[in-house]
Amino acid sequence: YVLDAPGLARLLGLDTGLGLHSILSIGLSRQGTDFLSRLNGDFALAYHDGRDGSCLLATDIMGQRSLYYAVVDGCLYAASQPSMLLGFREIPDTPDAEALAYRLYNLQHLAPERTPYRHIRLLPPGDVLIWRDGTASVRPFWSPIPRRAIRYRRNEDYVDAGRDLLDRAVAARLPDTGPFLCHLSSGLDSSAIVTSAAQNRDRPFHTITVRPDPTATAIGDPTRHFTDEWPRVQPLLSLYPQITGHGIDAYLPTLEEEEMGGLFWSREWPTLSLHKIGWVFPPVWDLARQLGTKIILSANLGNATFSYDGRRVLTDAIRRGRIIQALHYLKGPERRRDGLLHTLWHHGVRPLLPLGDRLTRRALNGLPANPWTDFVSVRRDIADRLGLSAVPEPRPIHTGSPDLDRQIALIEEMRVLHATCSFLKQRGDFEIRDPTTDRELVEFCLAIPRDQYHRNGINRSLARRMLAGRVPPAITAETRIAPGQPEWFDWANQRRDWIGAELERIEKSPLARELLDVGLMRKIFNDWPATAEEANKPPRVHLMRHALGSGLRAGQFLARLEKRNE
């Protein structure tokens, strides 16, 4: 869907009653790719220009919809999922195992066009493909680097403007009629979406809060985590009588979901962890079916937009010689938790050092260049050749602000991840909409002063101020987080024999062994902890959840591509 069709029509001097498809066609024919940067919403579109025979493909800027394409024998093929392209006999299903290395390292944004299939490419979010005379060219039509700076006289003006943009983004994504469902955790992002939807007090709706599996052991550090969010959202729900809240228990999906067509067996991409998507999606889908709703609102990009934490505001202040601003930052919880010198070094000075100096310091301390190398099951020679075991420059200086560069990098990472996971949103009869991906909201959040995100020692300051008066202080003042699938080890323990059998299949797969350090995975499996408490202690928790869990999913995917299902 594309928002504000009447506004687009007025921009083009057209009748506002004209249909969306006609407006898009006329806009593209008149303004070409420049028209794409004016679109807001979730879309994947194809446009054929009869004047010169060219074809245009484009997707929205945040990866809520995706397009994949292949060029074979001078022909262009495009579809919303790789499996659809594999239905054409002309397109080979040759695997590209190394594409999954980027995924396992969480660095897909470094090679956003690569997919698990050598002849299929992803059109990156915010990019446009032009097919003309048998040749495809791809270039961005939108960039997260802000084209303007927004400056107001009062700090309150940023709060008012952000709240207004959020309200409009939520309202634009609500269905015209019928019920709708919102995710509701006890965090800032989903609370913002729910309370924004509740500003229309005449319209009742439902929320879902996924609770830990009551039959399993949920583990979390009480100083950093709370495992059950349902009791924590009760004060919010009590403020809005038009909301019907549902606390739904998570449950371990059956082994049938591991078979063809199940939740964990996709020809698109391997899932990112052992059972994490099963923790959220099935309860939400079950409730949506019961309610008869087609629209589900979520909030997945909030941490990169209005609830961004401003982690490098201190670095910005030091870089620009703003001593008062730096002192205000150092009043915050980071200093109280870590101490003055630690906070000043890690949050202020170290990010200013050149990449080479940072790598040298890590080497002198006996640390790997990429701190996650030990927790990823990609073979070290493959990671070295692809440059993944050395820290890539994730935040090149584009803007002169280290904090803005960090926010831009976070958006780049998340929008590519969203694009590769969009196939999950297309399962069932539901449409998942995320107001935090709204273009106008995103651009506003990138254009305002950095200190709006970290003021007077408080991180995520913009979001906390935007929610004041709408959300109980117990939520806006909370610094702990929910761990996400707190019963992961109990579920893995229930499937231990199955995990062992799957690992044996992966060990027999030449394609999986080409990418994965199966010896490391076997070692982790053989060192299975006796209790959930042992499993949740670093570094074992990272080895089990990432090196073994995510590695197992990648290995299953490759073994199945190789037809090793015996």
Topology, please?
Layout lengths: L4 H8 L7 H12 L12 E5 L6 E5 L8 E5 L2 E5 L2 H4 L13 H6 L16 E2 L4 E6 L2 E6 L14 H18 L8 E3 L4 H10 L7 E7 L18 H10 L3 E7 L26 H16 L3 E3 L15 H7 L3 H7 L3 H6 L1 H10 L5 H10 L15 H7 L15 H24 L5 E3 L5 H9 L6 E2 L2 E2 L1 H6 L6 H4 L11 H7 L1 H12 L2 H6 L2 H9 L5 H4 L4 H22 L5
Parallel strand pairs: 8-9, 8-11, 9-10, 11-12
Antiparallel strand pairs: 1-2, 2-6, 3-4, 3-5, 6-7, 13-14
Helix pairs in contact: 1-2, 5-6, 5-16, 9-10, 9-12, 20-22, 20-24, 22-24
Contiguous helical run count: 24
Largest sheet: 5 strands, parallel
Integer-rounded radius of gyration:
24 Å
Mean pLDDT: 91
What shape does the CA trace take?
globular
Quaternary structure type: single chain
Strand order of the largest sheet: 10-9-8-11-12
Unreliable runs: none
Helix content: 40-55%
Give the terminus-to-terminus CA distance: 43 Å
SS elements, strand count:
14
Share of β-strand residues: 5-15%
SS content category? alpha/beta
In short:
This protein is α/β, with parallel strands linked by helices and 566 residues long. The chain has helices at residues 5-12, 20-31, 82-85, 99-104, 155-172, 188-197, 230-239, 276-291, 313-319, 323-329, 333-338, 340-349, 355-364, 380-386, 402-425, 439-447, 461-466, 473-476, 488-494, 496-507, 510-515, 518-526, 532-535, 540-561; strands spanning 44-48, 55-59, 68-72, 75-79, 121-122, 127-132, 135-140, 181-183, 205-211, 243-249, 295-297, 431-433, 454-455, 458-459.
